Structures are given as C-alpha cells and as structure tokens.
Amino acid sequence: MYLKRLELKGFKSFPVKTDIIFKEGITAIVGPNGSGKSNISDAVRWVLGEQSIKSLRGDKLEDVIFAGTDTKKPMNYCEVALTIDNSENQLELDFTEVTIRRRAYRNGESEFFLNNKSCRLKDIKEVFLDTGIGKDGYSIIEQGKVDEILSNNPLSRRKVFDEACGISKYRYKKQEAERNLSNTKENLERIDDVYIEIENQLKPLFNQQTKAKKYLEISEKLKTLEVNSFIREIEGIEKELSEVNEHRKVIEKELNEKEEQKNVVEKKQEDINKEVEVLQDVIEKSVDYINSIKGVISKKESQINLIKERIRNFTNEISRKNLEIKDIKEKLNENKQYIKELESNKLSGSEELSTLQENIKVLESSKDKQKIKLESLNNEIELLKESIIDILNKKQEFSNKLSTLNANKENMNIRDENINSEITELNKNIEIKSSELDTINKEFNMQNENLKNVNNRHKELSINLQDSISEHNKLEDEIQKSKYNLNGYNSKLNVYIDMENHYEGFNRGVKEVLKNKNLKGVHGALGQIINVPEKYEKSIEAALGAYMQNIITDNEFSAKSAINYLKQNNLGRVTFLPLNIIKSNKISLGNLKANTKFIGIASDLITFDEKYRNIIENILGRTILINNIDEGIKFAKETGHRFKIVTLDGEILNPGGSLTGGSLKTNGNILSRKRYINEYTEKISNIKNEISHLELKRESLDKDVKNIKNEIDSHESKIKDLEKSIIIKSTSIKNVESEIESLKGSITKLENEKNDLNSNLNYTLEKSDDVRKDMEELDDLYNKNKEKIDALNEEIKRYNDLYDKEKSEFDELNLSLVKKTEVYNSIVRDIKRISGENCELEEKNKQLEESLNYEEHEIIKLQDSILTEEKEKENLTKQLGDSNRNLETRKIAKDDLKNSFDEINKELKTIDRQHIELKESLFKVGGRLERLKTSQDTYINKLFEQYDMTLVQALEIKDEDLDIDRKFLESLKREIRSLGNINIDSIKEYEEIKERYDFYSEQKQDLEESMEEIEKLIHTLEENMKSEFEIKFEEISKNFKYVYKRLFGGGCGELTILDKENLLESDILITAQPPGKKMKNLNLLSGGEKALTAISILFAILITKPTPFCILDEIEAPLDDANIFRFGEFLKDLSKETQFISVTHRRGTMEAADYIYGVTMQEKAISKVISLKLKEAQEITDII
C-alpha cells in the first residue's frame, strides 16, 4: 500500500486543479520560501480529517480556500483528494484503490467522501485505524511534530506512541464502549428514578383505593337522604314566594300615584327657576358693564400721571445737556493750541535723525569689509592645522605597522619548524590505525550476516503473531458488538411485547373488555386483527381514526353482554362491531384504476382473516389511498368529492370537500407493534447463531497465538546476544575510522597552515619597505605647513586692531540714533492722539444740540395730551352713576321670585319623603323575594354540585314516606369527613401503577446485565492494550538505541516508561547522550541534537511498525551537512518498507530522493508543481 495520487483544487495557493503522481521510494518536493510547497503536506493533513485550522496555519476554515489575487477571482470552495493503492488489501475495503476526498465551502460547510460516496469523518478515521495514517498518527511529520515528541506535554508524546504500538484502535473501541456504558448508566438512572417513584406510589395508592371504596358506599346512603331533604325545602320556599308577590303589587300601585303628583309640582318649580335665571343674566351683564367703565377711568388717570412724569424727565435732560456742550467747546480750544507746539518740535527732530543715519551707514560699510578679511584668514589657518594633525596621525600608524610586521616575521619562522615535525608524527599513527580497522571489519561482517538470518525468522514470526492477535481482537470485538446488539434488541422486543400485552394505546373501556376473558364472543379490537404494510401504516391509522378502538364480536348479544359489564363497573364507553350484522360497503373500482394518482382502496392494501371482510370493507371499503395532498385534491375534484381520500402522510379529504391534516398523534404503535415483534424476534435468533460461530473461531486462534509466542521468545534471546556483540564491534569500527579521519584532517590543516605561513612572510617583507618611504614624505609636508601658519597669524593681528577702532565709533552713533528716534516718535503719537480726541468732541457736541431740539418739541405735544385725557374721564364718571341705579332695581325683582320658589320647594320635599317611604317598602319586599329565590337556587345548586342532578332528576327519586333523621344525616357526614381526602381515581390508578411497576422491574434487570457485559468488554480491551503496548514499546525502544547510534555516529539514546504500573497513561521519558558528551536533559541539547533525537524516535517507530507512506515537512532543516548525509542514507534504507514524500530545501535529502517535484510561484500567490532533475532542484533551493 502506498500514496498514489494527490489532487488539489482551490486549496490555499492551488486555485487550478493540480494532480501530483507519487511512486514508491523517496519523492522530494522543493521550492523557494513562500512558493507553497508546505501547502502540499497541509493538504494531506486536511483531507485526513485535521479539524484545527491553526495547525494548517490559518484562523478560520475559509483561510484554506484560495483567496484570489489581483488577476484571479477568489474561489467559493476547495477540494483535496488522496488516492491510496490498496492492491494488497491492507485497508479492510474491497477496493484496489481507495480515494478519500474532502470539500469545504466559504459558508463553513464541509463534507467527506470515500470512493466518491458521502461519509462521516468518523468513517475515515476507522478506515485508517492502526495504520499510522491520520492527523494524530506518524504518517505526517513536520517541525511541530518533532517539537511535540520532545515537548514537556506527555499527552502529545503518548498519541504518537499509542499509534505506533497499535493500541489506538483499542483505545477508540474502549472510548466507544465507555460512551455506551455511560448511556446505559443514564438509562438505568432514569429507570431507577421512575422505578423508585412508582414503588413509593404503590403503598399510598393501595390505602387510598381502600378508603375510596368505603367512601362510595357511605356516599350513596347520604345522597338519598340529602336529595329528599333538599326537595322538601324547595317546596316550602315556593309557597312563601307566592304570598310575598301579592303584597308587592299593592305597594307598586301607591308608588305610581305619588310619582304623578310629584311631576305637577316640579313643573311649577321649573317655570320660576327659568324667570330667576333670566334676571340673573341681566344683573351679571350690568355688573360687567359697570366694572368695565371703572377700569377705563382708572386707565385714564394712570395715563395722565405718566405724561406728567415724562415732561419732568425731558426738562431735567435739557438742563444737563446745555452744561455738557459748554465744557466740550472749552476743551476743543485748548487742544488746538497744543497741536501747534507739537508740529514745530516734530520738524526740528526729523532733520537731526537724517544726519545721524548717513554717518552710521559709512562706518558700517568699512567695518564689514574688515570682518570678512579676518574670517578668510582664520579659515586658512584652520585648514593648515587640520592637515598637520592628519600628518602626525599617519606617522604614528606607519610606525605601529612597522613594529607589528617585524614581530610577525619572527613568529612565522618559529611555527614553520614546528609544523614539519608534527606532520611526520601523524603519518606514523595513521598506518597503525588502518591495520587495526581491517581486522575489526572482518569480524563485524560475519556477525551481521548471522543477525540478519535470525532477524528475518523473528520478523516472520512477529507478523504471524500480529496477524493472529489482530484476528483474535476482531473476533472479540465482533462478539461483544453482537452481544451488545442482542441486549438492545431484547430490550426493544420486551417493550413491544409489554405494550401488546397491556393493550397500550387503547382507551380504558377497550382495555377492560379485552382483559376480561370471561366475556364470550369477543374477537378483539379492529386495530389488532389487521396487518398493515409499513409504508401504509400512517395513512391507514389516519383513515381508521377512532375505529381502531372498536371491538369485533360474534353478534349483538355478545356486544350487549360487554356493554352491561362496562356499565356495571363504570368503566367507560366502547363501540362494538357484531359480525352477523355489519355488511360490506365497498365501492366499485370502475375507471378509478386508470387514474395515475390512484394507489388503491384501503381495504385491499391490508391483510386480515377472511371472516372479518364485511367489517373491514364496511369501514375502509370506501377509502382511497393517494400519494400526497396535491394529488388528493385533484382526484377529489375529478370524482366529485364522493369518496374519503387519505394521503400517505395521513391527510384526509372527506366526502363533501372538508380536509383534515396537521400533526398526527400516534396511538401507541397499535398497527406497527406486531411487525416490530416479528422483526426483532428474527434478528435475535440470527445474532445468537452468529455469536456461537465466532466463539468457536476464537478458541482455535488462542492456541495458535500461544505456540507463536514461545518460538518468538527463543529467537529474541539469540537476537539480543548478537546485537550486543555487533554494537560493540560497530562502536569499535566507528571509533577507529573517526580517529583515522581525525589524523588525516590534522595533517591537511598543518600543510595548509605551512603554505599560508610562506605567503605571509614574503608579504611582510615587502610591506615594511613601503611603510618607511611613506614616513619620509610625511616629514617634509609637516615643515612646509608650519611656516605658512606663522605668516598668516601676523596679518590677522593687524586687521583686528583696525576693526576694533571702527566698531567703537559705530556703537556710539547707533546709541544716539535710538534716543533721537524715540523722542520724534513720541511727538508724532501725541499729535495723532489729540487730533482724534478733537474729532470725537465735535461729533458729540453735534449730537447733543440735535437731542435738545427734539426734547423741547416733545414737551409741547405731551401738554396737549393731558387736556384731552381729563375731558374723557369726566364723561365716563357720569355714565357710571346711571348704571348703578338700574342694577339695584333688578336685584329687588329677583328676591321676590326666590321667595315663591322656596314655598313650592317645601311642598315638593313632603311628596319626596312619602315617595321614598313607599320605595323602601317595595325594596324590602323585593329583598325578601330575592332571598327566597336565592335559598331555592342554593338547594337546586347543591343538588347539581353534590350529586350532579337537576331538580327534575331529583323529583324522580322523591320519597314522601322517607323518614329524614337529621342526626343520622350528620353522622354519615362525620364518617365521610373522618376518612379525610378521598381519591376516587386511586382505584384505577392502583391497577395501572402496579402494571408499570412490574414492567420497569424487568427493564431495570436487562440494563444491569447490559452494563455488566460492557464493563467486561472494557476490561478485555484494556488487557489487550497493555499486552500490545508492552511488546511494541520494547521493540521501539530497542530500535531507538540502534537508530540513535547510527544517526549520531555513536552515543546512546533510551526510552523509559516512568510508571510501569500504569502502562496506558504513563509518561515516556526520553534520554539522549550524544557522542563524547555526558547524558543530558533534552532541554540542554542544541537545536540540531534535539531534531536528530526526535528523528531517531520517528525512524525507530517506522522500523517497528512501518506506515504505508510518510510525509516529512522540513524536519531535517536544523541538521548540519554531516548529519544530513546520514539522514539521507537512513531514509534510503527505510524506503524499502515505507514510501517517503519529503518537503525540503537540503541538497543531501534531494540526493537521496528517487523523484523530485518543484513548486514555483510564477504568478503571485499561485503555486505550480513541476517535475525536476536533481540539478534543477538545487538551483531552485539556491534561491532561498
């Protein structure tokens, strides 16, 4: 078995469908960083069921779908298919090729296919169990897996070793069994809860039903006495009701007469009231008019006072403004005089400033020329000083170099003599070691041949043992699975048998008739005597409806006998179908069969005993079955709504056009129970036969396993002795070879060193002469620069004196200019300020004069307004006096009408009092009547509430001669009260609970037995796991020691189980001792040593249990060239049993490969796979 083909479409950087064909042996996949070569190993991991997107270097599922580029649209789904050659049938599938396919969409949906058939992830995991293939196996090894093996997380390490030791399939089966055990425990807990609850109910219900029976007996006696007592009370009340009604009629007549008298008086009172209202309206309007006149007068007085106040204000304002105008004119004259003085001072100051500014410009120009000349001279001196410093530094450097060169020349001469003597000594040692190596090699080859022969036989035996154990475990699994299924079917069968025996789904009356075997002529319920095909169960149940509860009898006499039984025991109502009376009522098919929607007549689609034909055709002979409701509606229209039509989903179209549908409640599986009982009985029989056959095969295998184990033990002892001897020889060979290589390397190094010494000596002599010449040239240059600096310093001193003198004169003139300028600016500011102030004063004076004219004019107008207002006030005062006199006359007329109203009101109160007295008498009579009626209704209600009887029904049991003893009546009531709370339903409930109690007792026992079987299975699986793990781990540990020494060229590696008492959960300790070093903690190893140690473990696992194919994703990246060479050689050995696909960029791995694929990214973010030769692959990896 090997990986034959990988197809990618839309996965990560592979938007175009890409097929990669793999052959047996080693295939290398190479390419620059970022080209997408690791996406190939990701694709394999993903298709095998990897659920963690982070492990695939993403955050969410859509990250594995091609995201698009600037030129290519993103894809909506991705798909990866992995094809495995299964021609040797290592996978338990009847296919020579097995293709696993996984597809994912952007909406988060994902689906799996096995040979193009949809399946679950669980199915794929089960296919590859115990093969090493899978996301948790060791068929895909990347850098992370290497780190995982050496990490401090024991769970990660255990997963790899469990898969390698072949116990992951047992662990999977154990987990399945534990889930089944958990489910069974949950079911048992639920049944226990119900069982305890029912058990707790039984005893109280027994006591309750005893009390209920006694209560019914006493209640019947009490009913007869109380009903007659109620009748006598009702008859006495009726007589008294007649007398009270006569008295009521007399009172009602007197009341009517008083109401007529009251109406006449109320009419008079109403007329007077209207006259008063008219007068009152006139008075209110007069008062309003008077108040309005008063208001106007008040407003006039306020207006006159306001005008006078305004005249006073205007007079005061005119006096104030005249004074202010006088002050402004005086201020203007003073300012004009002051401005004339300032203008004169401004003119003289301007002339002085001009003279100073001319003198300053002349001095400044001369001073700037001196400054520029000084700066130029100083710059020239600085450049010369820097040149001198450089010359001195270079002289010191040359002097140091000359000393160093002389010292090196002496040392090289001494070292050359020492090298010659060392080379002679090393050549002698190489001759001695080569002779020793030839002798050891001969002995090693002889022992290796012996070990190979013994190993081959041991391998054959191990394969035979593994096959036998595997076959044994499969048989054990099949036996346990069959037993588990047997328990399940037994449990289901018992449930349906119990439902059948207890008539589950039938009404109480039907159950009671069917249970009573003393009733003659009863055949059974209609739902029991028919057999319905499974596909028609829902439609036939809907068609029958309540008819399923009908009971078939021989004749009407049998039915009558059953009805009497139900009535006597108060057990409910049932419909009976006498065989001798009911006739067939089946429709004629005619042209119905030609209709494509027609399935058949309901009575023709079921089976039953021929003697029941008339009843079946009477009930179902006019019912037609149709596929669905749409076809049913069409069919009903075509046939004129004449037939009852039922669809396969249970919808009903009744004759006449009405439809019935919706959710259909099942009746306890009445129609399907018999079918289930027959099916489960047949399955149970088949499973029992299968278990017997499997147990015989298991016994035979047990004997074979025992014989093979004995032979394996014998061979393992021989192998250990040979291996021990070979390891010693191998170590000796490697040590001698290492010593020879080391000696040759030392000679080469010494010869190279000698050649280098000669070259360096010649170079040193030439260099010394050059340095001496350079030093002489530097001395000449230094003296010339010194003379130039002295001359320049003399010239700078002369220019500095002249510059200082001119600068002093310039500063004095500048200070005088500042002072004169400040005085001049102050005069200009004063002139501007006073001119502005004059403008403001003139504007203000103008405004004041205009305001005075306006205010004098306003005073004249206000004086005229006062005269007008005074005249209007006088006229209003006169009108007010006339209105007050008219108001007094109307008030006197209103008082006269009020007196008349009071007299009539006294008469009306007398009539009202008499009317109320009559009403109270009528109310009392009415109350009496209501009380009597209420009392009568109370007795009638008591009849209905206590005994569910109307008065008419009560009169039927009236007994005129019955002696009603109240004391006896009370004693019966006390006796009922002493019984306490009564539960009449407890009689029926007790019988039903007792049946349930017996049923759940059986279910509880079945589940307990099932739990015991599952626990035995789990124990067996654990024992098998321990045995397998112990054998395989020992083999892996042994292979690890061998691989470690070979890959490291020596050293020692060990695997140890830390807790041997807990083999299945214990952590595994990895210890490593590289050659020439002490045993170290893994954390102290270098990166390369860690990687090689993890690779040694993985290779040891592959030797012990080869996986069909193995994908290596740059696991050798941390290794140096020497280790890469050993890694490649070992890979070649392993490729005889395992196909390797290595994602790499190391030349040593490529050289070991049989086939090479290159991954390039010619277009941004799109990977392409090409087949390469070794040279082309190396060119690609050189880009990295």
From TrEMBL:
The keyword Heme does not apply. GO terms for biological process: chromosome condensation; chromosome segregation; DNA replication; sister chromatid cohesion. It is found in: Cytoplasm. GO terms for molecular function: ATP binding; ATP hydrolysis activity; DNA binding. Residues 520-636 form the SMC hinge domain. GO terms for cellular component: chromosome; cytoplasm. Its main location: cytoplasm. ATP binds at P32, N33, G34, S35, G36, K37, S38, N39. Residues 167-201, 227-492, 677-816, 845-914, 990-1031 form a coiled coil. It comes from the Bacteria. Required for chromosome condensation and partitioning. Belongs to the SMC family. Homodimer. This is Chromosome partition protein Smc. It comes from Clostridioides difficile (Peptoclostridium difficile). The gene is smc.
